[in-house]
Amino acid sequence: MKNAMLKNAFAEMKKTKSRFLSIFGIIAIGTGFFAGLLQSAPAMKVSSDHYYDRTSLSDIRLVSTYGFDDNDIDALKKGLPDVDVYPGYFTDAYVNTDSGEKKVARVYSLDKTGENNPYSSLQIVDGRLPEEENECVIDSGKLLAHYKVGDKLTLCGDEDTDIDGTLSVKEFTIVGKFASPMYISDVERGNTTIGSGSVYMICYIPESCFKTEVYTQVMINSDELRQYSCYSDEYEDARDALEKKIQKIADVREEERFDEIAGDAKKELDDGQKELDKKKSEAYAEIEKNESCLTQKNSLTKQSLSLKAARKRLMNRKSSLMRQKRSLTQTGLP
Q: Cα(79)–Cα(64) distance, rounded to whole angstroms?
C-alpha cells in the first residue's frame, strides 16, 4: 500500500512538474525567510552590544533631586573600587524654534573642553567638539536637520524654570552634530518635567558653563558588566548586584547628607538668630538713647517754659513798679 502511494505521488509530480517546482520554491523561500528572521535578532543584539562597548555606554546613570557633592562621589569610589565613576551635570531648558514655539533641550556637560567623554562617547558626524565656553554640539536627529554648523542657539527659561542659577552661558554657537549610544532613535529623546513633557533636542556644552554647587548626575561603567552581552541574563544579574551595592551606599549617604544639610541649615539659622539678636540689641540701645534724649529734651522744654513764665512775671513786676513810680512822681513824692 505504501509503495503504491509513493508511485502515485511520483507519477503526479511528473505530470505536474511545474506546479511541484513552484510549490517547492515557495516553501524554500518561506523557510529561508523565517530562518533569516530567527537569526536577525541575535545578530542585531551582537552588533548593538559591540557598538555600546565601543562607545562606552554607561551601565548605570544616577540622578538626585539634591544632587551629589564631593562626599557622595568619594563614597561611591571607595565603595565601588572596581567600577569607573563619572560625575557630571545636566539640566533641561527651553530653546526657541523657527516657528516661535519653545521646545525643550536637554543639556549635558562635557567633562573636558575639546575632549570626548570617557562614558557614552559621542560620535561626531559633522563639525567638531566644543573648544570654547560659548560653543555646543547638538544631536543629529531628523527633527534637527534644519540646524547647521555655525547656527546660534539660545537657551532660556520661563516663569517656572530659572536657568540663571544653573548656567553661566546661555548663548552658543553650534560647532558640531553627534550620534550618541544613549539615543538610538532618530526622533525619541526622552521625557521631561517642563514644557510639553517631551525632549526636543540633546545638547552638550563645556562643564565650565554649569555653575551649580553639586553634580546633578553620575555615570557608572563596569568592566565586569562589559564582559557580558547587555541582553543576557548574566548581565542583568551582575547589574542587579551592582545596583544593590549602590543602594547600600545611598542608604548611608542619604542619612549623612540629611544631617549635613540639616546642620548647614541650623548653622544658617543660628547665625541669623545671632544677627537678629545683635540688631535687636542695637535697636533697643538706640531706642533707649533716643528716649533719654527725648527725656532731656522734655526737661529742657519744661525749664524753658519755666524761664519764660519767670521772665513774664519779672516783666509784669517791672511794669508794675514802673507804674507805681510814675504814680509817686505825679503825687509830688520824692
A: 18
Closest CA to 93 of 206, 169, 149: 169
| Contact between residue 220 and residue 86 where contact means Cβ atoms under 8 Å apart | yes
**What does the DSSP 8-state code read for residue 183?**
B
C-alpha torsion angle, residues 60, 85, 48, 124 (rounded to 10): 120
Q: Which residues are within 8 A (CB) of 202 and not within 5 positions of it... i.e. 6 or more apart?
A: 105, 106, 108, 138, 139, 141, 180, 183, 189
* CA nearest to 86, candidates 112, 105, 122, 54: 112
Q: Which secondary-structure segment (H or E) carries 13?
A: helix 2-15
Sequence letter at residue 140: S
For residues 44, 47, 52, 54, the Cα torsion angle rounded to the nearest 10 degrees is -170
Per-residue pLDDT of the chain (334 residues; tens, 9 = 90+): 556 676 676 676 677 777 777 887 888 888 887 777 777 778 888 888 898 988 899 999 999 888 899 999 999 999 999 999 999 999 999 998 777 788 999 999 998 877 888 888 999 999 999 999 999 999 998 888 889 999 999 998 877 777 888 999 999 999 999 999 999 888 888 888 888 889 999 999 999 999 988 999 999 999 999 999 999 999 999 999 999 999 999 999 988 888 888 887 888 888 888 888 888 888 877 777 777 777 776 766 776 777 777 677 777 776 766 766 666 565 554 4
What's the rounded Cα separation, in Å, for the pair 91 and 333? 113
Please give the model's pTM, rounded to 2 decimal places: 0.72
Query: Which of 137, 216, 234 lies closest to 178 in space, CA to CA?
Result: 137
Q: What is the DSSP string of 245-257?
A: HHHHHHHHHHHHH
Q: Say whether 332 sits in a helix, a strand or coil.
A: coil
**Phi then psi dihedrals of residue 120, to 5 deg:** 45, 55
3-state DSSP call for residue 165? coil
